[in-house]
Design a protein that fits this description.
The chain is an alpha/beta fold. It contains three helices and eleven strands. The strands form two sheets. Strands 3, 4, 5, 6, 7, 8 and 9 form a seven-stranded mixed beta sheet that branches. The chain has a four-stranded antiparallel beta sheet with strand order 1-2-11-10. The mean pLDDT is 92. Bound molecules: guanosine-5'-monophosphate (5GP) and magnesium ion. The site of guanosine-5'-monophosphate has 21 residues, from strand 5, strand 7, helix 3 and strand 10.
């Protein structure tokens, strides 16, 4: 596997799309906004496993406000497309009543995952819910839930790396790669 140019995972080839430096700059910009907006609060950041583990680590290092962390786990993808059904694998554990909650996603595609998580979170009566996502595919997203903090908008193409996988592989790559046509 060549970390710089192209990578092959299972039967597909991917080419470099967003470097670690670019990703960290998007994350710093998101963190600046969050640090500004939550000065008076102690937000509970809820990253969505598995994909958001890298962005969670890098975003939290850039937060200068006091904050707490609690992971949740949902799954909707199989191969390179969404299955349309979302499974909850780890539920919300912390007491989120009256908390300012920030749901943290690696990427929002159709928004099905987010819709389910948003509804589940709301049941626990948080004080507020905002959404942060490193990446957003606006062409695929047809949902009314506002994404409050977006690192970068990208076209509707399948990507891997920086936490995102193709059937289990590629989460460990430090850059993001996009699938090639062949
Ligand atoms: P949605 O429910 O919005 O359609 O999909 C959300 C989840 O699907 C994301 O949190 C992510 O785990 C996965 N996903 C969406 N787009 C991609 C992609 O381009 N590549 C990978 N590897 N996963 C994706
Ligand atoms: Mg995800």
């Amino acid at each position: 596997m060549d970390e710089q140019g192209k990578v092959t995972l299972h039967d597909r080839t991917f080419e470099l799309y967003l470097t670690e430096e670019e990703l960290l700059s998007y994350i710093r910009a998101m963190a600046d906004q969050i640090n500004h907006d939550y000065k008076e609060s102690l937000p509970l950041v809820i990253p969505v496993l598995n994909g958001a583990f890298m962005v969670a680590a890098d975003l939290l290092k850039e937060l200068t406000i006091p904050c707490e962390l609690s992971f949740t786990k949902l799954s909707s993808y199989s191969g390179t497309s969404t299955t349309g059904t979302v499974k909850t694998l780890i539920g919300l554990g912390e007491d989120i009543a009256n908390r300012d909650v920030i749901i943290l996603e690696d990427i929002v595609d159709t928004g099905i995952t987010l819709e389910k998580l948003y509804a589940e979170t709301k049941k626990f009566n948080p004080k507020s819910i905002r959404i942060a996502s490193l990446l957003l595919k606006p062409e695929a997203y047809h949902n009314r839930i506002k994404i409050d903090y977006v690192g970068k908008e990208i076209p509707n193409k399948f990507i891997v790396g920086y936490g995102l996988d193709y059937d289990g592989l590629g989460r460990n790559l430090r850059n993001i790669y996009v699938v090639t046509k062949d």
